[in-house]
Design a protein that fits this description.
Elements: H1 3-17, E1 18-19, E2 33-34, H2 39-59, H3 67-80, E3 97-101, E4 108-111, E5 115-119, H4 120-125, H5 130-145, H6 148-161, H7 164-170, H8 174-189, H9 194-210, H10 217-231, H11 235-239, H12 244-266
This protein binds zinc ion.
Residues 139, 143, 192, 197, 200, 240 line the site of zinc ion (ZN).
Length: 278
């Protein structure tokens, strides 16, 4: 081990460990986060997993087969993505992608780095209008902006390996790499914490309002989720519990975000086609 690395890395960790991944918007999220690993590392792993999902869907001929719905969700993303600059100017330049799998499940996500996936099931079975789709997409984009995956990996890693992280960052061998992979899997697959969910609700509803989508649709969306949960709990709800508390919190944001929505309706923001069409 080169001793100089031991001087540099702890400084790096201290500098990056306690920070907020985003700037404060109108809704005011300022929570400091434990962010140990470089975001580039998390994004690379998330991209690998996203590509795996795309390949699997392509092999089953279920990827982007519903062209009309695909174009519909890409147009919604074209409006939402420019608004991320309020929270993080760098994220506008992420390699944003939106894909759609024809699959009768209620699920959608935005992987770290801006890789969005929707299943047709969530749109069809909940009969979502564009505002409600924007509510889900805004919420999922907020998870990526806030780097909740990276935060969970950092927490899992801090628990599992403690200071061994320093060695991993400086001189990774296969055993340590395996440990990191485990922490990453845990971080990217475990449900978000209630605090992270709440942050994504708040930031997501601001994103949609700024893009000119009616923020009240976030409430109708979760009411639909609640109703769906009564018949057969969908996978999405295992990671996104729909509760009266969630709906109350969203309603509590309306006084802040409705004026943003009304301003966007009066003066619609530009929505260039920034999501690649394939
Ligand atoms: Zn969520």
């Amino acid at each position: 081990m080169n001793w100089r690395k031991w001087l540099v890395v702890p400084t790096l960790v201290v500098l990056t460990a306690c920070t907020s991944s985003t700037q404060q918007g109108a809704t005011g999220i300022t929570r400091k986060q434990l962010l140990l690993l470089p975001s580039s590392q998390v994004d690379a792993m998330a991209l690998q997993s996203y590509k795996g999902e795309l390949d699997a869907a392509r092999k089953k001929s279920t990827l982007n087969t519903d062209k009309a719905t695909l174009e519909r969700i890409r147009r919604i993303a074209d409006r939402l993505v420019p608004q991320v600059a309020v929270f993080r100017p760098d994220a506008v330049r992420w390699g944003w992608e939106v894909n759609l799998e024809t699959r009768n499940e209620l699920n959608a996500y935005c992987a770290p780095g801006g890789k969005i996936m929707f299943f047709t099931g969530i749109i069809e079975r909940l009969k979502l209008n564009d505002d409600e789709i924007a509510a889900i997409m805004g919420h999922e984009i907020a998870h990526a902006l806030r780097e909740h995956g990276r935060e969970r990996i950092s927490q899992a890693y801090a628990q599992q390996a403690g200071m061994t992280l320093l060695a991993v960052l400086t001189n990774m061998d296969s055993k340590k790499a395996a440990l990191l992979q485990t922490a990453t899997t845990l971080g990217l697959t475990l449900p978000h914490s209630r605090g992270q969910e709440s942050e994504s609700d708040v930031m997501g509803v601001e994103l949609m309002a700024r893009a000119g989508f009616d923020p009240r649709a976030s409430v109708s969306l979760w009411q639909k989720m609640n109703a769906a949960n009564k018949s057969a709990p969908p996978a999405f709800l295992s990671t996104h519990p729909s509760s009266a508390q969630r709906i109350d919190e969203l309603q509590g944001q309306m006084a802040t975000v409705l004026p943003l929505y009304e301003a966007a309706r009066r003066n619609p923001p530009k929505a260039p086609a920034i999501i690649p069409r394939s």
